[in-house]
Amino acid sequence: MQRFARLSLSLLPAVLMTVTLASGLTADAQALRTEALVNPTARPVEAEAPQTETVLLLTGLAAIERDMMLGMLFLQDGLVSTVGSHFTQPRLETWPGIKDGLASAGIADFEGLLITLEAETDKAAVIEAQKAVIVAVLQAESALRATDQDRILAIVAEVQGAHDRFSPTGTTDVVDFQDGWAGLIVARGKVDLLMKSADPAVAKAALDMALAMDEVILALPDPAVSAPVAFDPAPVAALLARVEALATSV
Fold this sequence. Notes:
Blueprint: H1 2-10, H2 12-32, H3 53-77, H4 89-104, H5 111-119, H6 123-143, H7 148-165, E1 171-172, H8 174-194, H9 200-219, E2 229-230, H10 234-248
Antiparallel strand pairs: 1-2
Helix pairs in contact: 2-6, 3-4, 3-6, 3-7, 3-8, 5-6, 7-8, 7-10, 8-9, 9-10
């Protein structure tokens, strides 16, 4: 866990910036309203609660945040990647699936920021470009004016996506493990925002989600690995069931 702690501390400035921006943007959105990005093999949360366009867009934006987080870890702490920079993945893998939906929602195109990030080579310039992408993502998320239920379903989808990356055989590929690890971290951040809901039932469910996620995340193996990770995904499966149950309780 020492390496995990160091990785987390190395990201602290960026994380603090993200949380601060997200809190303000979410408050604005509330005032205004008084992997397909979800893994296709994932089971639905509930038959009567289908994935809406807003949920799919929230999930896609979260995928970009996940790549931004991993990109910073690779940049600052030298994690081993077998697939190249995570900073190139949002435009290749995620952006094509959400750009039209974002445009339909009246959200400004920020593909240019992704292109700029890909092109930067100086570390300081990369960090600044990454921050610009994060700001654009959070602004897009705020502009969607998602309901609490949309946000809950997006969190469930993100936990489902993370769960699906962990191999049931007990040994997970490096890239899949790192993606799953980052997916849970990003989902946990979204729960923090949901805890500020004006609906007491939603805020309570979010608090319960946060406690359950913290227990699992703190027990995860270190993501700074170069070989397949021996990891029993049973706790993540239990977390997914817990989050799904909380989602249906509000």
